[in-house]
Amino acid sequence: MSWSGWGDPARARELPEQVRTLLHDLLGVRAPAVPAVALEAVRVPPVALPGPLVEALAGVAGAEHVLTTHEARVRHTRGKSTPDLLRMRAGDGSDAPDAVVLPGSHEEVAGLLRLCSAERIAVVPFGGGTSVVGGLAAARAGFAGVVALDLARLDRLRAVDTESMVAEFEPGVRAAEAERLLAARGLTLGHFPQSFEYATLGGFAAARSSGQASAGYGRFDDMVMGLTVATPAGTLDLGRAPKSAAGPDLRQLVLGSEGAFGVITSLRLRVRRAPAERRYEGWRFASFAAGSAAVRTLAQEGPVPAVLRLSDETETMIGLAEPDAIGSGGSGCLLIAGHEGASETGRRAAVSALLARLGGEPLGAGPGEAWERGRFSAPYLRDSLLAAGAAVETLETAGFWANLPRLYDAVRLALLGALGSPLVMCHVSHAYETGASLYFTVVTPQDADPVAQWERAKAEVNAAIVEAGGTITHHHGVGRDHRDAYAAELGPVGVSVLDAVKTRLDPAGILNPGVLVPPATPA
């Protein structure tokens, strides 16, 4: 994983000259005045942890699994949001952990949490490092130091129950490796978010991830049948049946908790038979309103394809799926419908008939195949745009169908008001019977301080989402970036409940401090 960008550095590439010209002519984008620094030039603070505490960590995990090198600390600094990457490209490693610790078992995780709680060492659980909401930058004030708890050694498929269709994984298994292991048994999770190639299963659970095929397979939290969690207060072992009436489901307390309540050390996940074939097709609608109505009809009346996503007019025109052909996507709004499995023939025919009846124009397999080729490549395009001098970032929300047009307009207006004349694109990324998510991409020229530029825009968008009645996040998570807006969404009683849980499970407050849990309002 690139330390200052996304994914495999070998897959990074410069934008074609015609795209650079388009960015300059359309938005006024100019190349940055200062190039990105090299890894060894990143400025990190001195290790704050005293030697005896580093030795104590080594006593639990083994000396070879406690790293304090410059490179290890840089590679575990922050996540992959645009502000994260801009800071790293500028050489700002001020949020670097003091040490990176790689435990090899639940018992070692539990022992490390007991030690860190007793010694007031902040702990940031680290999976694939793909957070885009500031979820990996712990607050340092009041702590002896900060440790990144890298779960890469917890990377096993422990068991597969093909009668119950449940597989048990350790949290550090990357999604692509999980699919490879399951495919050998003819199975799949069916969870393919944009971070698929690098994110981990534990990270999916901790952030309530949604995949691109969630219309067919469900969100990741739908797949979690059980989990084991190490906390400073002890171990939680949750989920002994698919559903239960035995009080509130505490699995839901852990899902989406972003490492603030505990560290997931095992997951029992629902699996499905792997489809023999996958087919993705394109449809064109005259407007975003017409396409949204078609998506809503599919979600409410069925049948629902495994993949269902709709781009607005601007995103369709730009055509981000093919970087070499940016700006040639055509008119109207592009809908992608994906069908998985040989048994989908009848469903596909029914979906096609309904889309045609609702005004859709069939475009065949070409647009779907282009989307499939580029489904995991957008973060690489973002890196190329950043290098060219554009500030580019994504954000998402969700709301009920009746409120979706208002939410769409509110976000667009907030971005336009904050950034002047940015390029704002949107698509419906996940659809439900009662509503849908909206996923926005914004591109604008970098100003003299692009981090502050985006932070101002993000604050205005967060406020607009709350005022318009949407949720502050559908699948990116809360982290630091959404924490204050999350407090407004929860209300004071909800915030006090989160604070009470945090206090009970993590009395010293060492787990990911500053992330997720808003400061409690004084009584």
From TrEMBL:
Substrate binds at R382. One of its GO terms (molecular function) is alkylglycerone-phosphate synthase activity. Residues 93-274 form the FAD-binding PCMH-type domain. The keyword Repressor does not apply. The active site is at Y439 (proton donor/acceptor). The record marks R309 as: Important for enzyme activity. Belongs to the FAD-binding oxidoreductase/transferase type 4 family. It holds the Pfam family FAD-oxidase_C. This is FAD-binding oxidoreductase.
